[in-house]
């Protein structure tokens, strides 16, 4: 189900709690909402649809990756400066991002995963994890 985008900074600045195996409907709604906004959105976190759960979805080309409880466990020393927009805000915000990251998470079947990411998807994942941590970029 496509859900309304939350734009309330007070809500978005709250830290999300760990997702559980039975949060699949939230993940499905998050994916549906991302697909509905795909023309201007490449990632979303559950708090953007009103759920304070650590769930993100990121666009990876023609596919989307759903991550439950994503955690950056390793990152490059190299960083770069970026400007990021968000469906929750009307402005672009400057930020600093790692060039590569290793992420530990649970997949859609709640199986344990650990993957190394590089390229533009790294920026998306970091932005959405910031959302889970109550950081608004």
Question: Outline of this structure?
Answer:
This protein is α+β, with helices and mostly antiparallel strands and 137 residues long.
Folded structure, characterized:
With 137 residues, the protein is α+β, with helices and mostly antiparallel strands. It is 22% helix and 35% strand. The protein contains three helices and seven strands, in the order ααβββββββα. It has a five-stranded antiparallel beta sheet with strand order 1-2-3-6-7. It is globular, with a radius of gyration of 14 Å.
SSE map:
Elements (H helix, E strand, L loop, with lengths): L8 H4 L11 H13 L6 E3 L9 E6 L2 E13 L3 E6 L8 E6 L1 E7 L5 E7 L1 H13 L5
- Largest sheet: number of strands, sense, barrel closure: 5 strands, antiparallel
What level of helicity do the residues show? 10-25%
Spatial strand sequence of the major β-sheet = 1-2-3-6-7
**Rg:** 14 Å
Low-confidence stretches are none
Given helix and strand content, the structural type is alpha+beta
Strand content: 35-45%
Helix segment tally: 3
Q: Which of globular, elongated, flat, extended, rod-shaped describes the shape?
A: globular
End-to-end separation in angstroms reads 26 Å
Total beta strand runs: 7
pLDDT averaged residue by residue: 96
What order do the SSEs take from the amino end to the carboxyl end, as H and E?
HHEEEEEEEH
């Amino acid at each position: 189900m496509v859900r309304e985008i939350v734009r309330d900074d007070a809500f978005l600045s709250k830290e999300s709690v760990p997702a559980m195996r039975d949060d699949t409907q939230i993940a499905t709604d998050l994916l549906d909402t991302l697909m509905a906004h795909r023309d201007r959105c490449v990632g979303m976190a559950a708090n953007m649809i009103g759920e304070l759960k650590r769930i993100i979805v990121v666009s990876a080309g023609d596919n989307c990756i759903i991550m439950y409880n994503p955690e950056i466990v390793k990152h490059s020393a190299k960083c770069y400066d970026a400007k990021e927009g968000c469906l929750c805000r009307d402005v672009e915000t400057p930020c600093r991002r790692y060039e590569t990251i290793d992420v530990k998470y649970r997949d859609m079947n709640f199986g344990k995963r650990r993957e190394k990411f590089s390229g533009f998807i790294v920026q998306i994942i970091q932005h959405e994890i910031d959302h889970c941590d109550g950081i608004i970029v």
